Amino acid sequence: MIKTEYYKDLTKMNTFGMKVKARCFVEYDSVADLVDIEFEELARPVLHIGGGSNLLFTDDFKGTVLHSKINFIEILDECHSVPETPSQEGLGPSPYPGVGKCPLHTDGISSDELVLVSVGAGVVFDDFCDWAAKEGLWGAENLSYIPGEVGASAIQNIGAYGVEVKDIIHKVYCYDTLEEEFVSFSLEECGYGYRDSIFKKPEIKGRYIVTHVVFALSREAKPQLGYGHLRDAVMAAAGGSDESRITPAIIRKVIIKIRKEKLPEPSVMGSAGSFFMNPVITKEHYLKIEAAAKAELGADYKVPHYDLSDGTVKVPAAWMIEQCGWKGKRSGGAAVYDKQPLVIV
């Protein structure tokens, strides 16, 4: 079903809670509905949104806002087959007419342990993480409680606690609004980088609408606990030092607790979550920062940083913002969150 509304209130559709309206709002339930939308007739500009967690509306939107309600989670044949073409009907629980061989190989996990899961673009991403944890499937647990929807996760390459969504994506299925056909992008074709993908490039931005994403999860335990003090918190939650007792559900519970302590609930205080990118700089640039910090804070001061494999250095944006005295700073109705400087509220 396609639902069209005019002068739609978007207050609850953006996590900043900006009180704005869209001239036209179109929401669709299936790929069949998506095909039926007359894109050439839509009021311009056209903006496709997910959960509204990467948006700051400063005024009413003069064009058309699109939103997907394609909502399903389906386990495919466990890594022995993978859909090649999405069905244009999209009316049943499975949106594929056929399957092909799965060419997937992932970091020492045997294909017998891999589980391909197809998820509709309109599924709330954290609902998918919750489902995966309850199924005992590994891979998505570190990404728990990130706001937004599955379609947007594949565009933004969301990440947290040492994991990026690209680490579990197998294929992204889209509708090409220019050629009016369905296409798919392999992991390599998505061109993922730090909070980046091919879908964000100016030359194609807005052309492809994600219909569903196939994730590659695992039944083999692969806990990713190298970020900060995550291991200590997870081991404490598991009740000891035996790593075999760790489950995806335990890691998910710990990460949700950490995120709730650091980030405001959008329903209580409008925000876009943690959205600053950590700067990646040259080693030479980092050494200048380190020298300045030691001169001001003492020779024993250790600047937080992460040495990357290509010789560059990632410096936490939160640390830099706090060093500049901006943690908790307020200007009118906007402020840097006093518990986490990566968040504007």
Q: How would you characterize this protein structure?
A:
- The strands form six sheets. The protein has a five-stranded antiparallel sheet with strand order 5-8-13-11-12.
- The chain starts with a strand and ends in a 10-residue tail after the last strand.
- The chain has 345 residues and is α+β, with helices and mostly antiparallel strands.
- Residues 80-109 have low confidence and may be disordered.
- The relative contact order is 0.11.
- Helix 4 (230-238) packs across helix 5 (248-262).
- Strand 9 (159-160) and strand 10 form a beta hairpin.
- It has helices spanning 31-36, 125-134, 150-156, 230-238, 248-262, 283-297, 317-323; strands at residues 2-9, 21-28, 46-49, 61-68, 73-75, 82-83, 99-100, 114-120, 159-160, 163-164, 169-176, 181-186, 208-218, 280-281, 306-307, 313-314, 330-331, 334-335.
Class of secondary structure makeup: alpha+beta
Helix content: 10-25%
Q: Radius of gyration, rounded?
A: 21 Å
Number of helices: 7
Shape category: globular
User: Order of SSEs, N→C?
Assistant: EEHEEEEEEHHEEEEEHHEHEEHEE
Low-confidence stretches: 80-109
Mean pLDDT: 90
- Read across the widest sheet, the strand sequence of neighbours is 5-8-13-11-12
What amount of the residues lies in strands?
Answer: 15-25%
User: Strand tally, please?
Assistant: 18
Q: Sheet bearing the most strands, described?
A: 5 strands, antiparallel
Q: How many angstroms separate the termini? A: 35 Å
Task: Give a topology summary.
Blueprint: E1 2-9, E2 21-28, H1 31-36, E3 46-49, E4 61-68, E5 73-75, E6 82-83, E7 99-100, E8 114-120, H2 125-134, H3 150-156, E9 159-160, E10 163-164, E11 169-176, E12 181-186, E13 208-218, H4 230-238, H5 248-262, E14 280-281, H6 283-297, E15 306-307, E16 313-314, H7 317-323, E17 330-331, E18 334-335
Parallel strand pairs: 2-4, 3-4
Antiparallel strand pairs: 1-2, 5-8, 6-7, 8-13, 9-10, 11-12, 11-13, 14-16, 15-16, 17-18
Helix pairs in contact: 4-5
